[in-house]
Design goal:
single chain, FAD/NAD-bd_sf, FAD-bd, flavoprotein, binds flavin-adenine dinucleotide, globular, 4-hydroxybenzoate 3-monooxygenase, FAD, D-Amino Acid Oxidase, Chain A, domain 2, 391 residues, binds 3,4-dihydroxybenzoic acid
Length: 391
Amino acid sequence: MRTTVGIIGAGPAGLLLARLLHRAGIESVVLEGRDRDYVEQRQRAGILEQGTVDVLRAAGAGDRMDREGLRHDGIELRFDRRRHRVDFPALTGGRSVTVYAQTEVCKDLIALRLEEGGPLLFEAEALAVEGAQSDRPRVAFRHQGREDVLECDYVVGCDGFRGVARRAFPAGVSRVFERSYPYAWLGILADVAPSHDELVYARHERGFALLSMRSPAVSRLYLQVPAGTEAGAWSDEAVWDELERRLETDDGWRLERGPVTQKSVTPMRSFVHEPMRHGRLFLAGDAAHIVPPTGAKGLNLAVGDVVTLARALAHERRTGSPELLDAYSATCLRRIWQAERFSYDMTTLLHRAPDATGFDARLQLARLERIASSRAAGTDLAEAYTGFPLG
Ligand code: FAD
Ligand code: DHB
């Protein structure tokens, strides 16, 4: 098999890249290791930055998002049994975010890809990328039990944190910067109307809690738990009891409970692989970087990467100049490190480390007070949360 751009992975990064390339008249083949159902049902991100919404709309993938997505003009910070609202449009000159699940973004992009007739192979697992520094890089893959090779002009690894593309970077070229955290998120999906109309990020002596949503009838909630916790170790009732404790306020606010339909644990890490290009092999999205989920940045970073890459590939095709491809890694990394910084700040602002001292707790409260009382500090959070400019 032969194509111009071989894309490994049909998560948000791979699917959107294929869509953007199609719009630019560049052909691609997408190889996805799992089946369609798995990709469409995997519960993950829920928050789209303004820039992500604009990109999906411009790519012709925004119709259902515009109908069903929920525009949010702020978040609530909860600490000391009090609430503080961060008003995004007021602090950023009109920016907001949209609640629209990653599962729905993927469903919309898969439907468009199949409609436009572009190759998207499910259950096609990439085994290795070969010849990254040659003119004809290849992806060895296995589809329906048969081994095959995809020959390309370019290969893009959109294959997530555990993918194979990153392994094709020689040890002397790769540089990894990482940090793991001694806690994780236990997430539930519940058939109950959200108890608040905006997201609530809560700092509590017992640990972090987050109230989010998927629709006016479905709540998504997260609890900080120790790293290594098994989801099955928590009964539904224990999860609701703990959420109630950590989200409690002095003004009579109540958490509504409902049937839990899904429960899982997400580990937390910060990770950046530099550079994001080796010869004709590029990395995009979680394949190159991970942020802890507290700032809701992962999916949005993946979108930024593929927008930058699609623009660079189209530029090369149009003008013959590789200048934007040469700048790809540095351009993306500037935005990625800003998101790494913000995600780290949000995480350490709101979680309780197992070895936290009274001093650490007082500092967290002082940082939160500062955000609540200074327009400059509130603006800093609002600008980062609603999103840094794309490349
Ligand atoms: P992925 O979505 O991981 O997709 C990679 C794809 O590659 C997968 O489909 C995988 O099956 C496939 N693949 C892997 N290996 C191979 C192979 N060898 N061959 C073929 N295919 C392969 N981000 C936000 O922006 N906002 C949020 O609110 C948010 N909340 C989150 C909450 C949770 C609980 C979690 C876990 C994550 C959250 N994120 C959030 C992060 C976000 O989900 C990820 O950053 C995003 O999925 C990255 O997209 P991707 O396409 O790069 O990678
Ligand atoms: C969701 C996930 C996040 O990481 C976050 O910061 C906010 C919301 C969610 O899944 O809804």
